[in-house]
Amino acid sequence: MPTTPTDGIAKTVGDRLRDRGETLSVAESLTGGRVCVRLTNVSGASDYVDRGIVAYSNTAKQQELGVSRESLDADGAVSASVAREMARGIRDAAGTTWGVSTTGIAGPTGGTAEKPVGLVYVGVAYAGPWGSESSFARADRHVFDGDRQAVAKQSATAALDALADAIDDVEADD
Fold it and tell me: How does pLDDT run along the chain (174 residues), one tens digit per residue?
């Protein structure tokens, strides 16, 4: 079966993680496991994928990922702060090198003027070597068009792209 562009980014990320001897965990909300599915559809993913959690509710985000009530109250579940906390929380809970997260509004309902349908935040957290002060957590904001499935699909791709970009940044600093 030919490799599709969708398969390509998951394979590229996986190859780079394997080459670097690094591991990954994923925390998903609106994508409902799509990021993990794409990663684990690549043969050999067990070399670098540790786990994935779908934390759809605020309670799950708090209990499973350590997202603070303060961030949820102040910024809402669909926010940069929560995306960072989700990525950091899964990374630290799993003890992996990388954590990636997705949170957003897939629609068709749930949007507001401030937070429209299609608004998505992707978080990436890196655990640098102890004492290096190179660890970080960051989040990117996106607004995608389309129906619920299209928004979720684009969000999963954005998560893999953000992870690839973050690996590039870390490699540039090595």
Answer: 444 444 799 999 999 999 999 999 999 999 999 999 999 999 999 999 999 999 999 999 999 999 999 999 999 999 999 999 999 999 999 999 999 999 999 999 999 999 999 999 999 999 999 999 999 999 999 999 999 999 999 999 999 999 999 999 999 887
Angle between helices 58-65 and 80-94 (to 10 degrees): 40
165 half-sphere exposure, CB direction, 13 A CA radius: 13
Q: What is the pTM of this model?
A: 0.95
d(C-alpha 90, C-alpha 28), whole Å = 10
Domains plus CATH for the chain? 5-173 (3.90.950.20)
Give Cβ neighbours of residue 111 (< 8 Å, ≥ 6 apart): 105, 117, 118, 119
- Show the DSSP H helices in the chain as ranges: 5-20, 34-40, 58-65, 69-75, 80-94, 148-173
Could you tell me which residues come within 8 angstroms of residue 25 by beta carbon, excluding any fewer than 6 positions away?
Answer: 49, 50, 51, 52, 53, 90, 91, 93, 94, 96, 98, 99, 100
